C-alpha cells in the first residue's frame, strides 16, 4: 500500500463517528453525530471537500418540494476524494478525486433498459431521498463516482452536477441552431441553460428574472438580452428582444404565471416549453392553446451520466468565470447560515467547504 493510501485508510478507520447535516426547516438546519460508515461490497468511502446547496434543497427546506419530505439529509452536488474501498473495488482508487452521480436506479425497469435511468421506476436520489454528502464521510457504489481530471479544481468540479441538468434539458430541446430561445429564471440552472443554449447554436437567448443583479450576470455570461419579469411590458419586451416569438422556452421557475406566459404569449405555434424547474404543486395549463397551437410541453428530470461528462467538459473548457456563479462559500460549522444565504434572491450558488473533525 502506498504512503498516501495508508494515510487515508488509517485516518478513516480511526473515525468512530462523523458529522451529518439534517434539515428540518429553513431555520432548523442541524449538525448531528452519527456512526461512521463502512464501505460495502462494490462501494467506496468518499470524504467530501466541497458541497453545493441546490435550489431544490432550499425548496425542500421550506417544505415546498413535492418529492423531498422533511426532514432530509442534503448534499447531492459533491466533489471529494475516495479514502477507502470495499470488497471488489480496486484499491488504486484510494486518493482519487471524484464527483458523484446522485441517481440510484434499478437497472431493470423499462426506462433503465432504454438508457433513461434518470426516470427509473424506483429512482432514489442521493441527498434528497437518501442521506447525502453534507457529512464528513459517506459510502456510495464505486460505479457512481466519476474521476476528476487533474487540471480541474474542486471549485470547478463541484459545479458539474448543477451544470448537468441544463445540459440534459438543452439536449432534449432538439436542434437549437438559429433558434430563438427564452430562459425564465437566472439562477444557477437558468444561467447554465443560457450558456448551453448558446453553445448549441441558438441565434438569440433572452433571459428573464426578477432580480437585477442576476440579469446583469446573465448578460456578462453572454445572453443576447435580459428582461425584468416584474415589468408590465415584460412579455412584449421579450418578444421584441427575440425578434419574434420563441421557438423554445426553458422554464426554471415553473409556476402558474410563467407557464401561462409561455403558452399564451411567448411561444410560436409548434414551439416547445421545456419544464426544468420543480413546481411546488399542481399548475393550471391552457390545454386548449397547447392543442390548437400544437405546442409541446416537455418535462426534464435531472440528467444521465453522459450529461455529467458533457458538463464536466464545458466547465473544463473555462467557458465562463466560475466566480460569476459561486456567490459564497461557508464552512460546515456555518451550514445553517449557508442555507439562509442560499435562500436569498441575490444568491446564485452557495458552497459548503468541508473540513476535518
What share of residues are in beta strands?
A: 25-35%
* Count of DSSP-assigned helices: 12
> So what's the oligomer here?
single chain
Can you tell me the residue ranges where pLDDT is under 50 for at least 5 consecutive residues?
A: 1-7
**How many β-strand runs?**
17
> What is the H/E order?
HEEEHEEEHEEEHHEHEHEHEHEHEHEHE
Question: What is the structural class?
Answer: alpha/beta
Structure write-up:
With 357 residues, the protein is α/β, with parallel strands linked by helices. The protein has helices spanning 3-13, 55-61, 110-113, 154-157, 160-172, 188-199, 212-220, 234-242, 256-266, 287-292, 305-316, 335-342; strands at residues 17-25, 28-35, 43-53, 77-85, 97-100, 103-104, 124-125, 138-141, 145-147, 180-184, 204-209, 225-228, 246-251, 267-275, 296-299, 326-331, 349-353. Strands 3, 4, 5, 8, 9, 16 and 17 form a seven-stranded mixed β-sheet that branches. A six-stranded parallel β-sheet has the order 12-11-10-13-14-15, sandwiched between helices. α5 crosses α6 (188-199) and α5 (160-172) crosses α11. The chain is globular and about 60 Å long. The two termini are 25 Å apart.
Q: What is this structure, in a nutshell?
A:
With 357 residues, the protein is of the alpha/beta class.
Helix/strand layout:
Elements: H1 3-13, E1 17-25, E2 28-35, E3 43-53, H2 55-61, E4 77-85, E5 97-100, E6 103-104, H3 110-113, E7 124-125, E8 138-141, E9 145-147, H4 154-157, H5 160-172, E10 180-184, H6 188-199, E11 204-209, H7 212-220, E12 225-228, H8 234-242, E13 246-251, H9 256-266, E14 267-275, H10 287-292, E15 296-299, H11 305-316, E16 326-331, H12 335-342, E17 349-353
Parallel strand pairs: 10-11, 10-13, 11-12, 13-14, 14-15, 16-17
Antiparallel strand pairs: 1-2, 3-4, 3-8, 3-17, 4-5, 5-9, 6-7
Amino acid at each position: 500500500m502506498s504512503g498516501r493510501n495508508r494515510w487515508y485508510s488509517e485516518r478513516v478507520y480511526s473515525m468512530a463517528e462523523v458529522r451529518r447535516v439534517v434539515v428540518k426547516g429553513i431555520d432548523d438546519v442541524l449538525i448531528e453525530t452519527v456512526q461512521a460508515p463502512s464501505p460495502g461490497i462494490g462501494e467506496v468511502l468518499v470524504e467530501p471537500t466541497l458541497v453545493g446547496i441546490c435550489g431544490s434543497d432550499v425548496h425542500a427546506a421550506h417544505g415546498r418540494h413535492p418529492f423531498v419530505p422533511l426532514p432530509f439529509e442534503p448534499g447531492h452536488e459533491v466533489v471529494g476524494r475516495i479514502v477507502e474501498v470495499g470488497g471488489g473495488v480496486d484499491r488504486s482508487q484510494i486518493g482519487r478525486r471524484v464527483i458523484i452521480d446522485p441517481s440510484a436506479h434499478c437497472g431493470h425497469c423499462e426506462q433503465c433498459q432504454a438508457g433513461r435511468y434518470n426516470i427509473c421506476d424506483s429512482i432514489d436520489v442521493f441527498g434528497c431521498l437518501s442521506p447525502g454528502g453534507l457529512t464528513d464521510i459517506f459510502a456510495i457504489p464505486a460505479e457512481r463516482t466519476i474521476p476528476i481530471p487533474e487540471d480541474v479544481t474542486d471549485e470547478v468540479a463541484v459545479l458539474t452536477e448543477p451544470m448537468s441538468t441544463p445540459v440534459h434539458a438543452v439536449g432534449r430541446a432538439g436542434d437549437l441552431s438559429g433558434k430563438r430561445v427564452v430562459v425564465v429564471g437566472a439562477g444557477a440552472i437558468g444561467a447554465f441553460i443560457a450558456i448551453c443554449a448558446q453553445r448549441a447554436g441558438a441565434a438569440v437567448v433572452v433571459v428573464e428574472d426578477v432580480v437585477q443583479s442576476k440579469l446583469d450576470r446573465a448578460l456578462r455570461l453572454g445572453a443576447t438580452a435580459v428582461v425584468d419579469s416584474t415589468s408590465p411590458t415584460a412579455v412584449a419586451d421579450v418578444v421584441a428582444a427575440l425578434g419574434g416569438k420563441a421557438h423554445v422556452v426553458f422554464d426554471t421557475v415553473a409556476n402558474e404565471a410563467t407557464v401561462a406566459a409561455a403558452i399564451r404569449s411567448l411561444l410560436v405555434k409548434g414551439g416547445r416549453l421545456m419544464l426544468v424547474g420543480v413546481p411546488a404543486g399542481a399548475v393550471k395549463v391552457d390545454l386548449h392553446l397547447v392543442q390548437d397551437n400544437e405546442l409541446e410541453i416537455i418535462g426534464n428530470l435531472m440528467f444521465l451520466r453522459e450529461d455529467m461528462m458533457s458538463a464536466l467538459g464545458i466547465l473544463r473548457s473555462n467557458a465562463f468565470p466560475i466566480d460569476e456563479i459561486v456567490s459564497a462559500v461557508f464552512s460546515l460549522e456555518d451550514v445553517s447560515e449557508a442555507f439562509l444565504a442560499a435562500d436569498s434572491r441575490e444568491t446564485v450558488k452557495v458552497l459548503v467547504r468541508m473540513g476535518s473533525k
